[in-house]
């Protein structure tokens, strides 16, 4: 092979080698960025609570959707699904809401038989993790929508007995959604009221100081 042919082959191979090297380098950079980005559980301030926040509701959906592959007993499926839905309701209402977003609600019956909503809010100095808050609220809104969609499918297929499970799921998840929406609204009203009171007291103090200063200036004149 002549020197001209060798030089031609080397000149053609150089750009190819350079492009492959750039591709490998970009792939390494992307892999390093993916590895350096922490997982959701690592970003969470309460990873265990976040796991249990989704555990029971996902398990209830799995039982509802896949129970026919393992058993033909609707009673067994109903009992297991309702237990999982009850565990989810209690966990979200009493544990994960308090840990993930600093909110808690419950309903009390007074002596005259009326129901009273009671709300518990976090301290203003406590900072809420953004990942925990987003996942908490997204799950609260998405879960009733998913069960409502499954209810439509059951009606279309004339599986009316399965509507019993869906009704329990919608009632429990809807109660948590309404309760936490009211609790969040109550917390915002309290915080806005405290901020207004603090601003009013500060403006009153500044007004008194300004009035005294102006009075002294004019009295000197």
Automatic annotation (TrEMBL):
<comment type="function">
    <text>Golgi membrane protein involved in vesicular trafficking.</text>
</comment>
<dbReference type="InterPro" id="IPR008564">
    <property type="entry name" value="TVP23-like"/>
</dbReference>
<keyword id="KW-0472">Membrane</keyword>
<feature type="transmembrane region" description="Helical">
    <location>
        <begin position="73"/>
        <end position="92"/>
    </location>
</feature>
<dbReference type="Pfam" id="PF05832">
    <property type="entry name" value="DUF846"/>
</dbReference>
<keyword id="KW-0333">Golgi apparatus</keyword>
<feature type="transmembrane region" description="Helical">
    <location>
        <begin position="162"/>
        <end position="181"/>
    </location>
</feature>
<keyword id="KW-0812">Transmembrane</keyword>
<comment type="similarity">
    <text>Belongs to the TVP23 family.</text>
</comment>
<protein>
    <recommendedName>
        <fullName>Golgi apparatus membrane protein TVP23</fullName>
    </recommendedName>
</protein>
<keyword id="KW-1133">Transmembrane helix</keyword>
<feature type="transmembrane region" description="Helical">
    <location>
        <begin position="135"/>
        <end position="156"/>
    </location>
</feature>
